[in-house]
């Protein structure tokens, strides 16, 4: 396993051997019961299989069906071995959550992740994560927020909105896109009369950051631009009631709004 993990990317023939049910079962076993080296190498190999394999959806489907896969991945987030294994685990989790072959089971899969406190663990990572880890953690949060169960869990997280808004324009294009998508999923499904996360987003400066994205021509695709516009309309409904500007992030913002 150490040798395999060290020679990635793997050739198609090697991937084919590792994607067999027996091989995947052994990798999952090491993920749960192996020593530190075994767990690290197992998750690195799994990351390679779900990220580069031509039939990655079949690999994800096989992994989801195996007992202990989700527990093993979350364990590496809860009790990290090293930054590399943490990032690898986040990548595998993201592929499991977003794979089209698992869509029929997405709700139950996300419910399992939430039950194991994954959302809180990922938010804790995000507070002071470096760029690569931050992007992967935000991707996992975005995937979790695609379902009703995920959004309901997100609404109970005190750190969710402040941390996500903080990452807009401060990390990378990809982190900004994930952050905008998370906010959009939460705000457009908000049903509380007091505005809930919409008001909370205003209080931590989301309106100005989103406006800045449009004004300075931030490198975003049309889909994300559409989400930014939608968010601005939602937030604007509550701007007269509450608003906060964190000026350090908005020195390039053209006024008036």
How would you describe what is shown here?
- The chain has helices at 2-6, 12-18, 21-33, 36-52, 56-65, 69-78, 83-98, 106-115, 118-126, 131-144, 148-155, 160-167, 173-188, 197-203, 206-215, 222-236.
- With 257 residues, the protein is an all-alpha fold.
- It folds into 2 domains: 1-116; 128-257, Leucine-rich Repeat Variant.
- Helix 8 (106-115) packs parallel to helix 11.
- The N and C termini lie far apart (56 Å).
| Rg, Cα atoms, Å | 20 Å
Q: How would you sum up the major sheet?
A: none
Task: Decide which structural class fits the backbone.
Answer: mainly alpha
DSSP helical segment count = 16
Domain count? 2
**Which architecture of the largest domain would the CATH scheme give at its second level?**
Alpha Horseshoe
Looking at the structure, what is the overall shape? elongated
Present the secondary structure layout.
Layout: H1 2-6, H2 12-18, H3 21-33, H4 36-52, H5 56-65, H6 69-78, H7 83-98, H8 106-115, H9 118-126, H10 131-144, H11 148-155, H12 160-167, H13 173-188, H14 197-203, H15 206-215, H16 222-236
Comma- or semicolon-separated keywords:
257 residues; elongated; 16 helices; 68% helix; single chain; 2 domains; Leucine-rich Repeat Variant; mainly alpha; disordered C terminus
What does this entry show, briefly?
The chain has helices spanning about 1-5, 10-20, 20-35, 35-50, 55-65, 70-80, 85-100, 105-115, 120-125, 130-145, 150-155, 160-165, 175-190, 195-205, 205-215, 220-235. With about 260 residues, the protein is mainly α. The chain is elongated and about 60 Å long.
């Amino acid at each position: 396993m150490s040798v395999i993990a060290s020679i990635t990317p793997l050739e198609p023939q090697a991937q084919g051997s590792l994607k067999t049910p027996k091989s995947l079962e052994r990798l999952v076993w090491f993920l749960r019961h192996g020593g530190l080296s075994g767990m690290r190498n197992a998750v690195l190999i799994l990351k390679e299989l779900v990220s580069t394999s031509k039939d990655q959806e079949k690999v994800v489907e096989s992994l989801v069906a195996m007992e202990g896969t989700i527990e093993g991945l979350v364990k590496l987030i809860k009790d990290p071995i090293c930054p590399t294994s943490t990032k690898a685990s986040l990548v595998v989790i993201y592929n499991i959550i977003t794979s089209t072959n698992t869509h029929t089971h997405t709700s139950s899969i996300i419910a399992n992740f939430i039950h194991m406190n994954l959302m809180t663990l990922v938010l804790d990572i995000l507070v002071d994560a470096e760029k690569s880890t931050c992007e992967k953690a935000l991707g996992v949060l975005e995937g979790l927020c695609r379902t009703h169960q995920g959004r309901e869990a997100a609404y109970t997280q005190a750190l969710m909105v402040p941390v996500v808004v903080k990452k807009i324009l401060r990390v990378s294009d990809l982190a900004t896109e994930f952050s905008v998508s998370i906010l959009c999923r939460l705000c457009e499904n908000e049903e509380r009369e007091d505005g809930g996360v919409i008001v909370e987003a205003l209080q931590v400066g989301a309106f100005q950051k989103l406006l800045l994205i449009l004004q300075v021509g931030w490198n975003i695709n049309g889909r994300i631009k559409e989400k930014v516009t939608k968010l601005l309309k939602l937030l604007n409904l509550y701007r007269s009631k509450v608003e906060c500007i964190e000026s350090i992030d908005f020195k390039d913002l053209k006024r008036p709004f």
